[in-house]
Specification:
The structure is a homodimer of 419-residue chains.
Chain A (H helix, E strand, L loop, with lengths): L6 E2 L10 E7 L10 E8 L4 E6 L7 H12 L4 E8 L5 H19 L6 E8 L6 H13 L5 H10 L8 E9 L2 E10 L12 E6 L5 H14 L4 E2 L9 E6 L13 H23 L7 E9 L2 H12 L2 H8 L5 H10 L10 E4 L2 E5 L2 E2 L4 H8 L3 E7 L5 E8 L3 H9 L3 H8 L2
Parallel strand pairs in A: 5-6, 9-11, 10-17, 12-16
Antiparallel strand pairs in A: 1-7, 2-3, 3-5, 4-11, 7-8, 8-9, 12-17, 13-14, 13-16, 14-15
């Protein structure tokens, strides 16, 4: 568990100074049963924004639009909808995303390129653009800077999430308090690198754009890129970060101690959200901290961790409270990492299930005790070198499959979208 | 569906001339409830044998032993046990495998290196070697060459399979009949390349060892390496092929038409078994023929096929009769294949669900009709080049997870193995 370099505070994206948020029910998720599904975060002062996006070669329209906007200018507003991914919607999808940005910008009195946009939900259906266009003025009009509003925004980005995920911390820079606030959604399609996950981060410190970009890339690599629920990767994954300087504090030196402190704070915030995402994974019953130790290289450690974290048979065993080290080592073997079978040790917490590639001294009773816990650490020591890699991952449950075979079906989404 | 270059005949590994088989109940699967779990195939005449083995870096002891024996000499007997994989058992596991080969060889009057050995079942437990050693003389004594004996052998290699899998064909070479017989086991951990699958092939034609090795490698690549059930790959996968020339027919020219005919026959036999393995996959309800067409290269076609075939979310959708092309295209996108979103077409049989990366003209009703079938073909046309790749794959069911969270647990295996 990472240490908090500052202190936790109440709220989410409105905890830092100079931010407002709001969300409305637009009928994107379900036209006959409206829920919060259209949200906005706005910095009342000019801000510097950066993003990290999905590496899926099929990118949703809002990803393409936001990437362009972030390159072109200083984004000051984040618009988000759930219920429809606006992915695989061709030129019309891009047009729809731009049209939304345009309306929001007009209402806010900024340039349309100062609006970044995110979507999450079903792939392949056009956005209900008339309904959205009609709701956008109301969305902008309702912006305020309370924690309650940040909560409403955090709720509006949820899809199969069961609860909103918000974190805020305060750190001290130059003797003055600055804040980082964030919210995220996750649940399904969670895999390195990134997932159907959206994350919005705000801070009231001021940083050079390069430092901000570096900070969010590094923090994402160490947090969201190390979680896995079902081994899938979405078309929409996005982390957006906005820094407005409203605290009056500016970090000028790129690699100085203030910058490092900010980076540590950002990493802590994203790490908290990454944990939350796994804990709230679709029908998840286990939170597994998977440690790969002493690999011959960073890449080998990562390969082993990802192979184990994504093995359906390993995940089924976790679901069944089964300390099945044979399934773990078989996934280690097909990871393509360089390894020596006779050096591999596997632990459930402190219990040595496999020693030197063979049955270890731990008793079945002790192993089952650990495997039955809601959360445990599984350690694979390759005893080959000095590289480590840690991931947060989950089990695979019959309920996950049942949920994804029915609840989120394409044709039900079509039905829900028909106005 | 491949065409049979000859005709189907009754039986399995004893259909070709000069082969005997037998199997016994040894209590390896469950000491208190013995089932067939120890089997033997024997060529009564000197034979030429070759094998293809798992590419998992953790290889089971019998894999290591068999690889050495096949390199050293002409193997004439295949010994197999189910219920215990003899994997991750260290030097003792190798010793146990050799000890079994030694006893069988002594009873048959051949060299111990003329015995290849396969194991399948739980990983990480020592073989119940005393029980096995005690049963081996009875196993050898019972060898006969009937189809009924071949059936018993085919049953003895089953683990979570629900039925035995046998194929035999007769082809004509030089105007004379020669036969190829085979059996296989599959069920879980099925993924390219290879799976927890064992396959034993016999033929009564005579071929040079190099031709035989090439034939089995190519046929495996085109069949067993193109199936996927759960995306896992085992430590024990093995295909063994024995050719004894008992038909009196010898193929001398390495790439002549007789050799090609034999290769086609072998490929047909393995293709039939590959289909059987998917159809009998653990708790499988769908048989999906996944065609990737017009990729820019063979490797790109393969990447796309494997990404889609192994995506849990795609497989859940198949289980739910859901023509969810969005999940298919998202897996296409993360496959790392080179592609252009706006060129991708996706079909459920003849129904165009996605055209040019967007919603296609097919009606939801027609798509659901196809997606509800027990078996259907899903075609992904990348429209980029001329390379195709086809796989056989299956859905992922809640029952699969439930089965693998409990039935095959490590601690239950430990209990079943305690004498």
């Amino acid at each position: 568990m990472l240490e908090n370099p500052g202190k936790s505070i109440e709220g989410g994206v409105c905890a830092p100074s100079g931010y407002q948020a709001h969300a409305v029910e637009c009928g994107i998720k379900d036209v006959n049963n409206p829920r919060l599904d259209l949200g906005l975060i706005y910095s009342t002062e000019p801000a510097c924004s950066v993003g990290v996006f999905t590496t899926n070669r099929i990118k949703a329209a809002p990803v393409k639009v936001s990437q362009n906007h972030l390159k072109a200018t200083e984004v000051q507003a984040f618009l988000s909808n759930s219920g429809n991914a606006n992915a695989c919607t061709g030129a019309d999808g891009v047009q729809d995303a731009k049209s939304c940005a345009k309306i929001v910008a007009k209402e806010l009195g900024i340039n349309m390129r100062q609006v970044a946009i995110c979507s999450t939900g079903v792939i392949g259906l056009p956005l209900p653009i008339e309904r959205m266009e009609a709701k956008l003025p109301e969305l902008v009009a309702g912006l305020t800077s309370t924690n309650a509003q940040a909560d409403i925004f955090a709720k509006s980005i949820m899809t199969s999430d069961t609860r909103q995920k918000e974190v805020a911390i305060e750190i001290e820079i130059d003797g003055k308090p600055v804040r980082i606030g964030a919210c995220a959604k996750g649940a399904g399609m969670i895999k390195p690198s990134m997932a159907t996950m959206l994350c919005f981060v705000t801070t009231d410190v001021k940083l050079p754009k390069e430092s901000l970009q570096k900070a969010v890339l590094e923090a994402t690599e160490q947090t969201f890129n190390r979680i896995s629920i079902d081994g899938d990767m979405s078309t929409n994954d996005t982390v957006l970060l906005m820094a407005n300087g409203a605290s009056g504090v500016e970090i000028k030196r790129r690699n100085g101690k203030d910058c490092k402190l900010f980076n540590a704070g950002l990493r802590y915030v994203l790490d908290q959200l990454a944990r939350e995402i796994v804990l709230d994974g679709e029908k998840v019953t286990k939170f597994v901290t998977l440690e790969v130790k002493n690999a011959s290289s960073y890449l080998n450690a990562k390969k082993v961790a990802e192979a184990v974290a994504n093995s359906p048979l390993v995940k089924c065993a976790w679901n069944g409270d089964d300390p099945n080290w044979g399934r773990v080592i078989h996934a280690v073997g097909y990871s393509r990492a360089s390894l020596q079978e006779e050096l591999i040790d596997i632990y459930w917490e402190k219990e040595l299930a496999c020693k030197g590639g063979k049955l270890g001294p731990a008793s079945i009773a002790k192993l089952r005790e650990v495997a039955s816990k809601r959360a445990f650490t599984l350690t694979i020591d390759l005893n080959m070198g000095e590289s480590d890699y840690t991931m947060y991952t989950s089990d695979l449950s019959p309920e996950y499959v049942d949920y994804n075979r029915s609840e989120y079906s394409y044709w039900k989404a079509v039905e829900r979208n028909q106005g």
